[in-house]
Amino acid sequence: MSTPSPKGRLTRDEVAHLAHLSRLAVSDEELELFAGQLAAVLDAVAQVGKADVADVAPTTHAVPMTNVMRPDVARPSLPRDVVLAGAPAAEDDRFRVPRILGEEA
Asked: How far is CA 79 from CA 71, 72, 92, 93, 96, in A?
């Protein structure tokens, strides 16, 4: 691989190498376009890396998260006959569903 390019710009060879590693087929025009776009992404990442985060506590989410699930408590449900009355098909007090291919009866 060639020597690294100046800061903020990727060479055509570097972009071609990245495309090869990613198994992407790119045209000559795309190599030039992607070189500029990747340089912009790398510059943005470099800007984030310059942020002073010494006094910032690590977080896993940008906003506070709370458990949104209700407690798992058993509650009365509909009677079986009422549920099965709304089913497209029922048999032996159960839902009747189509057989899965390859299963024995």
From this structure: 23, 20, 15, 11, 17
Domains and CATH numbers, the chain: 1-50 (1.10.20.60)
Residue 3 reports pLDDT greater than 70: no
Residue 13 contacts residue 1 (beta carbons within 8 Å): yes
Cα 103 to Cα 98: distance, rounded to the nearest angstrom: 11
- How many whole angstroms separate alpha carbon 38 and alpha carbon 10? 7
40-55: pLDDT as tens digits: 898 999 998 899 988 9
Claim: this prediction has a pTM higher than 0.85:
no
**How many alpha carbons lie under 13 Å from residue 66 in its C-beta half-sphere?**
2
Q: Is the pLDDT of residue 29 over 80?
A: yes
CA dihedral 10, 16, 18, 20 (to 10 degrees): 180
Residue 35 CB burial class (10 angstroms; 0-12, 13-18, ≥19) = buried
